[in-house]
Amino acid sequence: MEGRCRNNTMFSRLRDADERFGALLLFMLLLIVLLQAGARLVRFSIIWTEEISRYLFIYTIMLGVSAGVTSGGHVGTTVLCDKFPSKVQAVLSIVRNMIFLAFTLLMAFMGIRFVLMQLEFGQVSSATGIPLYLIAFALPIGFVGASIRIIAILVSEIKGIHTYAERSSSCGDRGA
Asked: pLDDT higher for 71 or 132?
């Protein structure tokens, strides 16, 4: 999957923004955990650090879901697919990505419902007072981002199949 949606400028900007924001979140997470560890060495506890680090971790994970789509970092089985000719592999890849797209869209929808539920209840975190809907919003952000990336990959794959079919019919190359 790697590099399949790298040609499109909009998607490369999205990928770059995700990666930079993810790196910033990880850096902030590291600083907060180090601050808490240092404070504990001198027998001082900073109450909000554990909660903020947990929320930063949640957002980092959800951004990672989106970024993992582009880099091909998600778990996939290729043992069976590798036994088929390349045209069949391309079709199976499209089917697999369509199933993955349905899953990410479902998760985005459920995430939005969860955010709305958190808004309705008006809960806030205990140590920082952050509204919990802001934390729940990580779900739709991650899964909508993943859906956008899957769509870009599907477009690229479908164009690749059409290109292959045109090449095969015009050049007489039936390939495997």
From this structure: 132
Q: What predicted TM-score, i.e. pTM, was given to this entire model? A: 0.78
13-22 residue pLDDT tens = 777 787 888 8
State whether the Cα torsion 105-2-72-175 is positive or negative. positive
Q: DSSP secondary-structure letter at 73? A: -
Spatial CA neighbour of 84 closest among 93, 75, 76 = 93
Q: For residues 12 and 40, what is the distance between their CA atoms, to the nearest angstrom?
A: 42
The dihedrals phi and psi of 124, each to the nearest 5 degrees, come to -125, 155
State the CB neighbour count (10 A cutoff) for residue 19: 14
Name 137's Cβ contacts closer than 8 Å, sequence gap at least 6. Answer: 111, 115
The DSSP code sequence of 80-116 is TGGGS-HHHHHHHHHHHHHHHHHHHHHHHHHHHHHHH
Phi, psi of 11 (to 5 degrees): -75, -30
Contact 140, 176 (CB under 8 A): no
Residue type, 36: Q
Please say if the pLDDT value at position 172 is more than 50.
no
